[in-house]
Structure to design on (109 residues):
């Protein structure tokens, strides 16, 4: 019989700049793919993609809440609102990893 080992789902280590939305948050962002605006807790985004095979234009309107965190992917989709994904600061991530290390050490004892 094989020896059991402890496995975890590896955390995503990609870091993003982002903003925590407040009532007065106003910003605009534009790159080759998107034009975005946030004002009065309304996030609008126009995404355009053109290839030899297809053209796509998507208009998106999101009603934000104070405290929502928008992450920024400057090269492609611009600001985005992650759903069903835990988001935290770098310090929170280190704290989670330290907790995980302590839990694994207990299992190894």
């Amino acid at each position: 019989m094989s020896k059991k080992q402890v496995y975890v789902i590896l955390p995503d280590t990609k870091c993003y700049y982002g903003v925590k939305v407040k009532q007065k948050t106003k910003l605009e962002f534009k790159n080759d793919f998107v034009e975005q605006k946030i004002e009065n807790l309304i996030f609008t985004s126009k995404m355009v993609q053109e290839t030899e095979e297809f053209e796509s234009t998507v208009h998106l309107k999101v009603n934000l809440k104070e405290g929502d965190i928008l992450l920024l992917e400057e090269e492609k989709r611009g600001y985005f609102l992650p759903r069903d994904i835990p988001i935290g600061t770098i310090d929170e991530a280190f704290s989670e990893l330290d907790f995980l290390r302590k839990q694994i050490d207990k299992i190894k004892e």
